[in-house]
Amino acid sequence: MHRPPIPRRRGPSGQLALSLLLAAMPGPGRAQDAAPLAVERGDVLSVSVLEAPELARETRVDAEGRIVLPEIGRVAVAGGTIDDARRSIEAALRAADIIRSPTVIVEVAAYRPFYVGGAVAEQGAVPYEVGLTVRHALLLAGGLDRGEGGGALSPTEFIEMNAEWRATTFALFEVDSRVARLQAELELRSDMAAPDAAEGGRDEARAIALLDAELLSDRLAIRSADQEHLRDLMAAVEFELDVLARQSANLDEAAALQREDLENARQLLTSGLTSQPRVRELEREQLQLTRGQLDVQAYTARARQNVETIGYELESADRTMQIGVRAALRDATLERARLAAELETMAARLVAAGIRLTDDARLSPLDPSVRIHRRVGGQEVTLEATMSTEILPGDILDVAIAVPPQG
């Protein structure tokens, strides 16, 4: 009798991998840990009869759920267990009056295959063995297929891409920290809203944030010291103006008295009551007082000019600081936009290469998303599977690359 061929993967690599995987699997497997698998269409049964060795053979369960045996013909076995199939064959032998008390041994020679489709290198039927999981199935299907432009990276490429990603991420963190420092300095705040330095657990990031905070404190301290110095200068010049004002008043009073004395002396000189030298002496004293008044006026003018200069420097220092900080903030914002664009481009390249970003800002292969379509009680159900989900004969695995949203 012609037996339909059993589905096998072409080439020895799949079978060799299957053998190695099964040899490495711990424990007795599913057969002892769960309910026996039901016999279904596509399974290949090995049937032997101790009383009639010539009846021994391997036969496939056909589309109608039956097997064909010599002498007795078709026997329905689908839907039951191996023990149910054995009892059905024994009953058929007795009914055909071939063997009255037959001893039948039934084993599964080959389970019906399961099928793997989607993002795998080799789609199609895969021979089933007890204990296979989704992880085994992906390996037997040649691994994940990242699609056009994807594919596995070499170790060197992965290391280089990981280093580039981390370097760019760190550069962006540094710019974010700088922006936070500049914004705080512009608003004259001593606290800066630094980015989270704990992301990725990087000591360098925490060090950068700390240095920016210290730099902010130092720059604000320098500004405060400069402002205080200018205010002290302003107070000193204002005090000088006050002294000059009092000195000017004293000189004005002395000059008035001196003019009165000189006028009296001139009258006395006319009457012959004083000498010419005395008048000359008073005139010289008047010139000295006038010279002193002019000096005080000059000092007062310079002091007032100093007040204006210091006031301008007080205002100008703030404006100069704000202009410098705004220019630096503008440059940092542009740099941040450039780095963010680079990261977006890199993220697209990483997704195309099947790489995802982990919680610690490192790179790792994207996890596959696997759905299993399985017939249960005559109806098809869909299961969301993990790598450790066990596969059953006839399962259909739909594999996709789970691409996280890019934010």
Automatic annotation (TrEMBL):
Q: Which Pfam families does its entry note?
A: HH_AprE, Poly_export
InterPro entries named in the record:
HH_AprE-like (IPR058781), Poly_export (IPR049712), Poly_export_N (IPR003715)
Report the leader peptide range. 1-31
Q: Does the keyword Nuclease apply?
A: no
Q: Which residues form the AprE-like long alpha-helical hairpin domain?
A: 172-345
Alphabetically, the GO molecular function entries are: polysaccharide transmembrane transporter activity
Which stretches make up the Polysaccharide export protein N-terminal domain? 35-108
Q: Which organism is it from?
A: Wenxinia saemankumensis
The organism's taxonomy opens as: Bacteria, Pseudomonadati, Pseudomonadota, Alphaproteobacteria, Rhodobacterales
The identity of this protein, by name, is: Polysaccharide export outer membrane protein
Q: What's the domain of life for this entry?
A: Bacteria
Q: Which UniProt keywords apply?
A: Signal
